[in-house]
């Protein structure tokens, strides 16, 4: 179960709150992009960054000299948000139009992963998450590249999840209005792969479908002629 603190208590739309840990994991694993709040030199900012989960931690990475990571490396409190948009809800009244979505908010502070072997393992885990089997084929990071990369981790000990999937919520007095009502779904489609021009027809196209389930698409497009 997710922890319940003052910061994770959902006060608006409480019926959309979810408390299963797996719901949090699923949103993070599908999103892989966190919007991270930072107190910058010119004031507060929110920056989207690649983020991935291993067990009960979320990881981000960047250059050692990154200004964006400077405050986070010092253990400053922050907030991460992950959002998946699933569709528009079209009602019979303008007021009741809304959306279907899945969102997660994580509170806490980051710690630096110093150990080079652990850093290498976690960065490779990210590659495997987006392209299973790829770390067995590519050149892995060199000691110099690992030394130039900062890897930060935040525990998932304080988080909230909110899922909107309620459908149309028209007032009873509006039910006789002769206009279409329902849900306009959004679906993320992954693939097909687009081969770089110099490899067209020269190398087999890999299959990364195991990472994406029903979101994977094999339908060719104009950018992939292999």
From TrEMBL:
InterPro entries: Pyridox_Oxase-rel, Split_barrel_FMN-bd
Top-rank taxon: Bacteria
PANTHER family: 5-NITROIMIDAZOLE ANTIBIOTICS RESISTANCE PROTEIN, NIMA-FAMILY-RELATED PROTEIN-RELATED, FLAVIN-NUCLEOTIDE-BINDING PROTEIN
Name this polypeptide is given: Flavin-nucleotide-binding protein
Biological source species: Vibrio fortis
